[in-house]
Amino acid sequence: MKKIIVYTLTTLLIMMTVSLMIETKADSATYYMPYLHTSTSNVVYCVVTNVSSSPVNGSFTTMSVENGTATQTTGTSFSVDAKTTQLMTFSGSTLTTGTSTITISDVSASTISGYSGKLAFIGTSSPGDTEFGGGVTASTVSCTDVPMSCFQGTTSPKRNLVGHNCEDGTNKFAY
């Protein structure tokens, strides 16, 4: 009986040690942007860096608007290559990132001045190891894989924009 208990406790200890050593990541890292503005004098510039070894896909969803209700539909998507830094500009009702200019749904500069949104970075999919029965696998992403810093305004220097949070299912970070 003692051998069974010792064996069970040893096995549990090994399993707990291994699980603590494995880094957990989620499928996406999501930044919540509490205040964006359609005024061209309140432009928001965000610098995002993908420090991971895989490209990530980004999407922006309007969460709330000053007047009315946001539909919260995702219609804006872009990608950030591995080991690169990209400037994202929220100006008026557009998001410019890389070489893409995307119109943000729910936002019209003529009727809405303030809005908030959710900016998600999602791991890209790649073929799995078919020799061992793998299908399509998705790379994982954490908040530390896609750090972001934002600035606002047209002055020089820009105002540092704080108050956006990042969640990746395992960690929560405030910036």
Give a structural overview.
By secondary structure, the protein is mainly beta. The chain contains 1 helix and 14 strands. It has a 6-stranded antiparallel β-sheet with strand order 4-3-8-1-13-14, with no helix packed on it. Strands 7-6-5-2-11-12 form a 6-stranded antiparallel β-sheet, with no helix packed on it. It has one helix at 2-21, and strands at residues 28-37, 44-50, 56-65, 74-80, 84-91, 94-97, 100-103, 114-123, 125-127, 136-138, 148-152, 159-161, 165-167, 172-174. It is 11% helix and 46% strand. It starts with a helix and ends with a strand. The protein is globular. The model is unreliable at 3-25 and 129-136 (pLDDT under 50).
Summarize this structure briefly.
This protein is mainly beta.
Shape: globular
| Mean residue pLDDT | 76
Radius of gyration: 21 Å
Listing every helix as H and every strand as E from the N terminus to the C terminus, the arrangement reads: HEEEEEEEEEEEEEE
Please report the distance between the alpha carbons of the first and last residues.
Answer: 54 Å
Low-pLDDT windows of residues: 3-25, 129-136
Spatial strand arrangement across the major sheet: 4-3-8-1-13-14
Strand content: over 45%
Total of DSSP H or I helical runs spanning 4+ residues: 1
Query: Pairing-aware structural class of the strands and helices?
Result: mainly beta
Q: Report the strand count.
A: 14
Largest sheet: 6 strands, antiparallel
